[in-house]
Amino acid sequence: MDIQFIIFLLICGAFSGALFATVKIGSALFIVPTALLFMPVFQLPPSALIVPVIATAITSMVPILLVDWLHDMKTQQIDTHSLIAFAPGAAMGGVIGAQVVSLMTFGTFGLLFGLLVVMAVINVLLLYRPFAESSKWRCFAQLSQSAFRLPITLLIGCVSVMSASSGKLFYTVMLQMHTIKKEQVSGVSTGLALFVVVAAMVGFSFPAKAFALSGTHYFIGAVHLPTCMVLAISQLATYLLCRNKGNNLDKGVVHISAVIFLVIAVLRIWIN
């Protein structure tokens, strides 16, 4: 890899790690649109390399999600019953989503990424006006005991991977409609995102369809190993430096700024 490309990856990883530490927005949401935006600079075709970009970005999230989840476990901010109930669907969704990514078109990714941005906007609104108990949908309020928990969590995991996300954003919105303590929502959604990402990593190792760089050096399936390692290390380093930093006002500004960036990114993807 060129030194310019390594510096670009370090910057992407640093910003995404700080973003996750501050407002818990998955790092792949920042890395993928940024990579697609700057790929022409490195003379790489964005539409032809969407599969390895998504696969590498999502796989690089494993260390940061694991550390954050272990921290939540240590501080007992996790509803174990809900996590165990939702984990099988999340894992299956991750594997299936990873396989479907290699089959989908760039236009399909654009539509799903747009859906993800809509969920990001909803999540910001919920920070300031959470669901009242009377407004929670009955099927979600008791979802951990419902027969629909497997298909719903599977669908969320699948769509999340296809839209270049770990699923944390979707699961956070879902859990806010569930009868779970507010302080446990982040821990459970992080755990589910970890299951999705690890399962997706397995799926990306054996893509359903060959892509532009299949069989070239340093690729494990659809994951480019050197890029993944650089992103993972830079993410984890900045996450550890920025964790538990900033007040509510700082976090609110960062959250809104991140959503504005995602809106601009999805418009750029649609225009191209």
Q: Can you put this structure into words, describing what you see?
A:
Its main location: membrane. It is a multi-pass membrane protein. InterPro entries: TM_pro_TauE-like. Keywords: Cell membrane, Membrane, Transmembrane, Transmembrane helix. This is Probable membrane transporter protein. With 272 residues, the chain is mainly alpha-helical. The chain has one domain. The chain contains 12 helices and 2 strands; from the N terminus they run H-H-H-H-H-H-H-H-H-H-E-E-H-H. A two-stranded antiparallel sheet has the order 1-2. Strand 1 and strand 2 form a beta hairpin. The protein is globular, with a radius of gyration of 18 Å. The two termini are 26 Å apart.
Mean pLDDT across every amino acid position: 83
Q: What is the rounded distance between the termini?
A: 26 Å
SS elements, strand count: 2
Give the SSE order as H and E letters.
HHHHHHHHHHEEHH
Please summarize the sheet with the most strands. 2 strands, antiparallel
Structural class: mainly alpha
Helix content: over 70%
How many separate domains make up the residues? Answer: 1
In terms of DSSP E residues, the strand content is: under 5%
Which word captures the global form? globular
Number of helices: 12
Strand order of the largest sheet: 1-2
Rg over CA atoms, rounded to whole Å, is 18 Å
Low-confidence stretches: none
Family: Belongs to the 4-toluene sulfonate uptake permease (TSUP) (TC 2.A.102) family.
Subcellular location: Cell membrane; Membrane
Main location: membrane
Keywords: Cell membrane, Membrane, Transmembrane, Transmembrane helix
